[in-house]
Amino acid sequence: MKRLPIVLVFALLGVSAATAEKTVEGVFLDQNIQASYNPLGVQLVTRLFYRIPLIDKPGILWESTRIEIGVQNNLSPAYDFAGAFINIEPIAIFNLTLTAQAAGYYTALGFGLFPVGGYGAGYDSGALDSVTPLNRFGYLLSAAPTVKAAVGPILFLDTGTLTYFSAPTDTGYFYEIAGDTILADSDTELSNQAYLLTTILPGLLAGMNDSLLYVPGSGYLSHRICAAGVYSTDIGEHFSLYGALFAGTFLADRYYQYSLYLAGQVGITLRL
């Protein structure tokens, strides 16, 4: 059996998120595909949302303020997470995203929800070969505050995320695909994504990404550092393209310490 696809834990950095572009009101459709190597993963993320300016006030701190509310779907060969989100940016240097999603794990493509015996259970390909995957429903809740700063061409962003998972099994623990780790049936993950980037050309950013994943219940830690490149461009007033590439290694991880990590993301945003 193949190793399960996972949710990529990096987040694409839109240029507007760091440079305080003026908020445009409207209905937006955003769709992107993400893929990674070590671990192998792929998912399609779709968001449909309504965006409105929050504070009508001149100045770089206020022009990007906004509220976005809508629906989000994360689809992979192993699961479908579907639900709602709200993103609030009260000032250009901070925003908070809250998400609530139903989680459906399915075995139709040979994956699903893998019950395991405890935090110490193995979850490499060999270990998962002996586990029968399940069709199950659960849910997840997340809160992700982000702080942002820009000094000339240098951009800094840091996002901390608290995610609560509920996925009932008969063993009390399961292989959590999104974080590539083991969780109890009701459990939390803490993650942090930090980016230090510089503007190379209009729309093109390059720099470093530091990624941490921590499971409080077990004390498990995964730590990754990457070189990062991000590009975005507007095509007319209603359509934009974006993409990102990451290459690095794990400083700490149960299975991938010091292994090569590669990831990419490409997407579109359409103002309807």
Describe what is shown at a glance:
The chain has a single domain (15-271), classed as Beta Barrel (Porin), CATH 2.40.160. 4% of the residues lie in helices and 62% in strands.
Could you explain how this protein is built, in words?
- There is one protein chain.
- By secondary structure, this protein is mainly beta.
- The protein has a single domain, classed as Beta Barrel (Porin), CATH 2.40.160.
- The protein is 4% helix and 62% strand.
- It has 2 helices and 15 strands.
- The protein has helices at 15-19, 125-129; strands at residues 26-37, 41-53, 66-75, 79-91, 94-105, 115-116, 136-151, 154-166, 173-176, 181-184, 186-201, 204-215, 220-234, 239-252, 260-271.
- A hairpin with a 3-residue loop joins β1 and β2 (41-53).
- It is globular and about 60 Å long.
- The termini are far apart.
- The neighbouring-strand order within the major sheet is 1-2-3-4-5-7-8-11-12-13-14-15
Give the termini separation.
42 Å
Question: In what range is the share of β-strand residues?
Answer: over 45%
Compute the gyration radius: what is it? 19 Å
**Number of folding domains?**
1
Order of helices and strands: HEEEEEEHEEEEEEEEE
Contiguous low-pLDDT stretches (5 residues minimum) are 1-18
CATH superfamily: monomeric porin ompg
Largest sheet: 12 strands, antiparallel, barrel
